[in-house]
Amino acid sequence: MFKIGVMASGGGSNFKAIIDRIGEGDLEAQCKFLITNNGGCGAVNHATTYGIPVYHISGKTHPDEAEYEKALCAVLDERPVDLLILAGYMKKLPDCLVEKMPDRILNIHPSLLPKFGGKGFWGLHVHEAVLAAHETESGPTVHLVSSEIDQGRILAQRKVPVMPDDTPASLQARVLEQEHDIYWRTIKEYGESLQK
Ligand code: GAR
Question: Is the pTM of this model over 0.90?
Fold first, then answer.
């Protein structure tokens, strides 16, 4: 049994998919907290439903950058975890956090990295770019987080076809469905490999 903490900014469907797998016993892990930079997001509702402690830490709650970074690291000191899971967290992590958890932070990205990754590539923008480039396939990537956005070691990828009549929203839905399956499996495999 290993411990995870999750960071999310949006609807939180990936967060929910992970928590559901824990609840069903497929993923033998405990979720110790949710950190969000968006206090009103769907992920917070899921955390509340499941009784998971929520930390709202953002530029609003902590306008001073140093205090903001200190608050993020304090959560890790208060509730130590084996893995930190970014599930639609739309803010770059401060270096101090990446350095605190080397090779222990995972992210999911909705394209086949290294394609369509880096600054500006998040959420629906990724799928718009994939369609604009006339790609025939896309899909999620799970990777370790390094100090450069979307550049850490790739742990898993899954391809889905891009259909001729796709819109950014329809492609997003097809990729998201696979995200919900690939993320918990990769967390399980990687988390268990660290315990050996
Ligand atoms: C997911 O598609 C995730 O891959 C993406 O945001 C969405 C969050 O959805 N992440 C990024 O774009 C990170 N660069 P969710 O809130 O429903 O899990």
Answer: yes
